[in-house]
Task: inverse folding
C-alpha cells in the first residue's frame, strides 16, 4: 500500500558516529526535492547484494521540514541478516538505491498535553524525527535515552541541537539504574508515552505504564528489527502454486518476494499488520507485536515479515 | 420521536471502577451517590467522592484527603467544577474520572476532564435524575437549560425549535433547529418528552 512510485536516492555522504553506528544521508538521484515526510516516519530501502534482495525499514532522523535530504542511522548488528552489514560495508557515497516513500506508523498524538519519549540504543532514531516537530509545535516533552556507557557521548551529540533544559537526558547506567516507575508515575494527565528500543525495554515501559493506570491509547511503541532469523523451513504458497525455501537469515516475506510473489507489507517489523496472511497448515512461531494473544493461539494467520514456521513446513493462502 | 436513531445520542452504564485505573474520583450532582449510578456490587467506598449539597452549610473536609473512601462536599456545582479543574491540573497519569447526575452535569464534567487531558477511555458516566435537556440553538447559539418538550421557543431569537437527539459532546448540549423553516408558521404541537 506504499503510495506512489519508489524514489531513486543517491548516497550523499556517510558519517561514522560510533564504531557500529553510521549516518547515511540521501538526496534525490534525479534532482529536485523529496516529499515532505511525516514526523516519526520511516522509509524502506531496497538493498541488492548480488542476487540477494533485501528490503529494510529505517526511521528518518532528518527533520520533517527538510526535503533536500533524508537521513537514517544504521547500527551494524553482529548477527545481521544482511541489511545493516550491506549498508555498512558495501554502500558508498554516490551509489543510487531504491527507497519507498516515507510512511508513519508512529505519529505524535495531536491531543497530547505532554509527550514522554523513551529510547533504547538505536531506538533513538524515530524519536530524533519527533524533536524538531515538537519544537515547532511548542509541545511540552521529556526524552530519556538509554545507552551503553561508551555510546552516551554519541547520543548526547545527536540530541544536543534540541536540548534546552532538563527535558532531554541520556542514561548510561543501565536499565536497573533507570527509575522507570518513578518517571511514569509522575507524569501529568494527558501525557502520551512513546518507546522505541529493544523488546525488553518496550515490554518494561508498556507493562509498567499499564500497571500504573495508563490507558492503552496513550502508550505507543515502535518496533523494528524484530526479524532475527531461525531454522530454515519450506513455505507452500497454495494460491500461487509454488513452494519456497526460507533460509536461516531470511524472513518468510523475503523468501516470498524472492520467488516473485507480490506479498503485502508495510513496516517489515511486525508492527503494522499489513502483511497478515492466512495459514492453511503448519504451526507458526509468532514474533510480531500486532496480533492479539488469541489470534496467535488460534494459529490461523501469520505476519510474514517477522514470524516463521515452528516446524519444517507452512502452507499459506497466498 | 424520542428515539430518532441518531448515533451521537450518548449511552450510559452504571459505574464500576476501571481495574486498570490507579485512583478513582467520582463527582456527583447531588448530596449522595445514587444507588442506581453504581454497577451491582460496587460501593461508593471504591471512589474518592465529591458531592454537591446545594446549601451554604457544608462540613469542612480536609482538602488533601485524596483517597478512596474520602468524601468532599461542595456548596454548588460551579464550586465543585472549579475545584475539579484545579485538581486535574495537578493530577498524574492513572486517574479515572466518573460522574453521576443529569446530562448537562455529566458533559460539563467531561469537558473539564478532556481539557485536562483525559481521554474518553479514562472517564465513565451514569445518567441519573431528570431527562430535561440543555439545548443549543444552531441559528443564534443560545443555550437553554431544562427543556422537556419536543418543540420549544428559542430564548435568544424567538425561533420555534425542534429538539433533536443530535448531541454535541463539545457543547454538552442537544442541537435544536428551526422547525418552520420550510413553511413559516407551520409549527406542530409540542410534546412533553423529556422530564
Result:
Amino acid at each position: 500500500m506504499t503510495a506512489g512510485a519508489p524514489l531513486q536516492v543517491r548516497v550523499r555522504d556517510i558519517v561514522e558516529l560510533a564504531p557500529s553506528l553510521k549516518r547515511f544521508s540521501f538526496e534525490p538521484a534525479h534532482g529536485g526535492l523529496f516529499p515532505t515526510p511525516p514526523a516519526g516516519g520511516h522509509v524502506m530501502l531496497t538493498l541488492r547484494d548480488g542476487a540477494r534482495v533485501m528490503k529494510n525499514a529505517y526511521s528518518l532522523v532528518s527533520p520533517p521540514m527538510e526535503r533536500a535530504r533524508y537521513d537514517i542511522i544504521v547500527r551494524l548488528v553482529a548477527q545481521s541478516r544482511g541489511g545493516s552489514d550491506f549498508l555498512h560495508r558495501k554502500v558508498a557515497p554516490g551509489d543510487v538505491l531504491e527507497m519507498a516513500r516515507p510512511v508513519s506508523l508512529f505519529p505524535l498524538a495531536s491531543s497530547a498535553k505532554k509527550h514522554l519519549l523513551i529510547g533504547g540504543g538505536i531506538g533513538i532514531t524515530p524519536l530524533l524525527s519527533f524533536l524538531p516537530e515538537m519544537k515547532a509545535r511548542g509541545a511540552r516533552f521529556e526524552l530519556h535515552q538509554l545507552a551503553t556507557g561508551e555510546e552516551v557521548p554519541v547520543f548526547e551529540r545527536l540530541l544536543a541541537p534540541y536540548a534546552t533544559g532538563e527535558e532531554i537526558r541520556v542514561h548510561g547506567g543501565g536499565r536497573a539504574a533507570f527509575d522507570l516507575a518513578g518517571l511514569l508515575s509522575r507524569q501529568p494527565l494527558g501525557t502520551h508515552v512513546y518507546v522505541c528500543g529493544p523488546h525488553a525495554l518496550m515490554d518494561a515501559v508498556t507493562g509498567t505504564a499499564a500497571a500504573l493506570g495508563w490507558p492503552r491509547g496513550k502508550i505507543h511503541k515502535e518496533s523494528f528489527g524484530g526479524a532475527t532469523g531461525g531454522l530454515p523451513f519450506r513455505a507452500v504458497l497454495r494460491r500461487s502454486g509454488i513452494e519456497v525455501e526460507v533460509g536461516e537469515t531470511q524472513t518468510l516475506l523475503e523468501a516470498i518476494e524472492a520467488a516473485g510473489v507480490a506479498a503485502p507489507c508495510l513496516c517489515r517489523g511486525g508492527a503494522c499488520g499489513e502483511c497478515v496472511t492466512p495459514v492453511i497448515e503448519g504451526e507458526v512461531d509468532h514474533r510480531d507485536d500486532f496480533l492479539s494473544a488469541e489470534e496467535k493461539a488460534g494459529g490461523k494467520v501469520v505476519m510474514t515479515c517477522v514470524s516463521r514456521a515452528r516446524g519444517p513446513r507452512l502452507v499459506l493462502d497466498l | 420521536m424520542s428515539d430518532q436513531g441518531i448515533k451521537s445520542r450518548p449511552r450510559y452504564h452504571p459505574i464500576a471502577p476501571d481495574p486498570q485505573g490507579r485512583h478513582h474520583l467520582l463527582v456527583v450532582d447531588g448530596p449522595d451517590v445514587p444507588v442506581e449510578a453504581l454497577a451491582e456490587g460496587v460501593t461508593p467506598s471504591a471512589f474518592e467522592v465529591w458531592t454537591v449539597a446545594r446549601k451554604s452549610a457544608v462540613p469542612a473536609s480536609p482538602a488533601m484527603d485524596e483517597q478512596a473512601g474520602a468524601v468532599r462536599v461542595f456548596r454548588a456545582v460551579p464550586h465543585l467544577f472549579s475545584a475539579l479543574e484545579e485538581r486535574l491540573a495537578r493530577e498524574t497519569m492513572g486517574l479515572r474520572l466518573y460522574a453521576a447526575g443529569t446530562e448537562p452535569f455529566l458533559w460539563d464534567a467531561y469537558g473539564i476532564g478532556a481539557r485536562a487531558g483525559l481521554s474518553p477511555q479514562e472517564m465513565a458516566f451514569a445518567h441519573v435524575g431528570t431527562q430535561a435537556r440543555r439545548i443549543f440553538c444552531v441559528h443564534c447559539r443560545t443555550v437553554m437549560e431544562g427543556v422537556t418538550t419536543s418543540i420549544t421557543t428559542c430564548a435568544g431569537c424567538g425561533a420555534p425549535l425542534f429538539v433533536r437527539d443530535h448531541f454535541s459532546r463539545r457543547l454538552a448540549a442537544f442541537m435544536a433547529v428551526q422547525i418552520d423553516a420550510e413553511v413559516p408558521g407551520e409549527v406542530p404541537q409540542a410534546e412533553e418528552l423529556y422530564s
